[in-house]
Amino acid sequence: MAPSVQEIRRAQRSDGPATILAIGTANPPNCVYQAHYPDYYFRVTNSEHMTELKEKFKRLCDKSMIAKRYMYLTEEMLKENQNLCAYMAPSLDTRQDMVIVEGSKIGQGGSSKGH
Fold first, then answer.
1. How many CB atoms within 10 Å of residue 12?
2. How confident is the model at residue 113, as a pLDDT?
3. 9: alpha, beta or left, given left = phi > 0 and alpha = psi -120 to 50?
4. Does residue 17 carry a pLDDT above 70?
5. Positive/negative CA dihedral, 54, 55, 60, 61
6. Cα distance between residue 91 and residue 86, in whole Å
7. What one-character DSSP code corresponds to residue 115?
8. pLDDT at 29 > cutoff 60
9. Fewer Cβ atoms within 10 Å of its own Cβ: the N or the C terminal residue of the chain?
10. What is the dihedral angle through the alpha carbons of 81, 38, 64, 67, rounded to the nearest 10 degrees?
11. Average pLDDT, the chain
């Protein structure tokens, strides 16, 4: 005889007081205020000569209702790894290497905030 829907659901779920193991938040250590973000972005991407696009981006940022942007990358890291800022440059390997090292650090920080 085939198992009932209730039996299948019961087998797929935990039972008891430890159903939710943890809820945490993790923010990368660097914060850029939204008002400064267009200047920051165009500076690190060496695109300050694109003044019309920069003005349009400023208007978008002003209307977005975002106050802060948290990011892992610093200006120094972006200068060391120019391929992260260059349009169509192969940067996937560099990004994945960063995620492997720093992703666990950020997650660990988020799990320890609640204690």
1. 7
2. 59
3. alpha
4. no
5. positive
6. 9
7. -
8. yes
9. N
10. 80
11. 81
Q: Which two tokens stand for residue 63?
A: 């209307």
| 81 vs 75: CA distance, rounded Å | 10
Task: Output the 3-class SS for 46-103.
Answer: CCCCCHHHHHHHHHHHHHCCCCEEEECCCHHHHHHCHHHCCCCCCCHHHHHHHHHHHH
| Alpha carbon distance 73, 71 (integer Å) | 6
Q: Rounded to an integer, what is the distance from CA 83 to the centroid of its chain?
A: 19
Q: What phi and psi values does residue 64 have, to the nearest 5 degrees?
A: -75, -15
Above 80 in pLDDT, residue 74?
A: yes
For residues 37 and 67, is the Cβ–Cβ distance under 8 A? Answer: no
